[in-house]
Specification:
elongated; mainly alpha; 62% helix; 79 residues; single chain
Length: 79
């Protein structure tokens, strides 16, 4: 299955540099885009659950929360 990615509003100077790099590497601009993305992302590791949970706790710290039973009661009352 082929996927596409469209990037808008690029600086013309950046586009020119990308095309020059593609020529130096003997690739089309599209092939160069793919290679840059592949190299940029290949070393990234998926965070484990504990890391994700810690990040969520950090993001939601000091935020107002509503107990689930209150939300459920409101949903039932709306019916």
């Amino acid at each position: 299955m082929a996927n596409s990615l469209l990037v808008r509003n690029l600086d013309p100077e950046l586009v020119a540099k990308l095309k020059q790099r593609a020529v130096r590497n003997g690739r089309s601009a599209e092939a160069e885009h793919r290679e840059i993305l592949r190299r940029a992302l290949e070393g990234e590791e998926k965070p484990d659950f504990a890391t994700l949970a810690a990040e969520m706790r950090r993001i939601t710290a000091n935020k107002e929360t509503i107990p689930s039973e209150v939300l459920l009661r409101e949903m039932r009352d709306e019916r």
